[in-house]
Amino acid sequence: MTDDPIPARTRRRWTPRRVRALLRSSGPTSILFRRRIAVITGAVVIGVVAVLFAKASDEMGLVFERFVRRWPWAPLVTTPLGFMALVWITRRWAPLARGSGIPQVMAARNDPAGAARGLIAVRTVLAKALLTMGAVLCGASVGREGPTVQLAAAVMNLSHRLTRVTLRSTVVIAGGAAGVAAAFNTPLAGVLFAIEELAARYEQRMTLMVLSSIVIAGMVAQSLAGDYVYFGVIGAHMPIASALVVVPIAGVGGGLAGGLFARAMLALADGRHRVTRWSKARPVVFAGLCGLVVAALGVATGLTWGTGYGAARAMITGADAPLWFGPAKFLATLATAVAGLPGGIFAPSLAVGAGFGNLLHALFPGDSVQAVVILGMVAYFTGVVRAPLTAVIILSETTASRGLMLPMFAAAFLADGASRAVCREKLYHGLSRTFVASKPERSASSVERQPAETLGR
């Protein structure tokens, strides 16, 4: 028996060899440590990039507004020409930057290594950012939230390359969802968006690393942009008796309208119809025609340009708005989305939903205008993207209307069912099939020659 108070097994645990082994497995040079640094650094940079991109996009919108005030008829020429130029540049130099950005991230999760060289490469997302700002400068009905998702995934890709760590699907999902959180200043909505849209299925395990990146990006964006509420503190609520009447009409009507938008977009992504075959054979000319539609609506109404944030916020706060705003914004957003230029549909869809809610309030003038408009936004947005939980949380966080959450949930789930009846394929899932993450080096000519992906119905 020995008098040594430290057992031999404990002494062996801290031998130099064991210390070196511990450093190799979890020290500063270990893969585990570098992966954590890559995710944390990426999340911080995502918050910064999201704020800078938002400010740059907003500035482009202000430049266009000043241009329209000085030359109100000029967009009838400049907007179609801008659409044509943007589509030509996109197809010639950055074909993977077209559209929203969310379908690219969904495609990237299936092949992160291939996507790192194409869908979420630095060159692709830089083109995405510049072309999206160009679209805003042309007056296109685009949002910055979808492109922010692709930018965020690319930031995660870059941080992993710099730390020499393999990019994984969960990190791509985390980066994209962190982009949503930073763009809207809604961390909880980012978590739900990761589960509902970006993740392959609801059962997919979401790790602490994924959730941490979303929260960190949201906190960084909030610290830079300020503790603000996206649409302002509305605090809307609705009595149960009124909700029992308004919610079914809002849910079914908004879901049908949103499903119609999604069906139209997917139909134009499918090359089996005569119109779509013509549009794919002459993409630049088709973009010019779409730009002419957007310009005509903008000149005629003065309200359908850009994201529609100002009009949506005015309607949420109870300001009088024309009943035709919702249908006009619907057409402007659809024409922009199918034109093929980079840009998202999140913010414009919320604006269309506000217009739909404004129409609903004409049917229920005795109810709170704020509550009815928000229900319209939830229903229409759900109908477009088929992510009811995300829609509810985004609207509750961006309007501080948590007292309206039960009617919002009811409207969202009704809208999801109504949208499914119109368009069985979820919009972003269908669009993601048009991107092939494993073949990032396709030229513009090969993109033009390749037949469109067949989308499920």
Can you describe this structure?
The chain is an all-alpha fold and 457 residues long. It is 71% helix and 0% strand. It is built from 22 helices and no strands. The longest helix is centred in the N-terminal third of the chain and has 40 residues, at 31-70. The N and C termini lie far apart (78 Å). Residues 201-206 and 437-457 have low confidence and may be disordered.
Detail the topology: elements first, then pairings.
Layout: H1 8-13, H2 16-26, H3 31-70, H4 75-93, H5 102-108, H6 112-115, H7 122-137, H8 145-162, H9 169-184, H10 187-198, H11 208-225, H12 240-269, H13 274-281, H14 283-301, H15 309-316, H16 325-339, H17 346-363, H18 369-385, H19 388-399, H20 405-422, H21 427-432, H22 444-449
Helix pairs in contact: 3-7, 3-8, 3-9, 3-11, 4-7, 4-14, 5-9, 7-8, 8-9, 9-10, 9-11, 10-11, 10-19, 12-16, 12-17, 12-18, 12-20, 13-14, 14-16, 15-17, 16-17, 17-18, 18-19, 18-20, 19-20
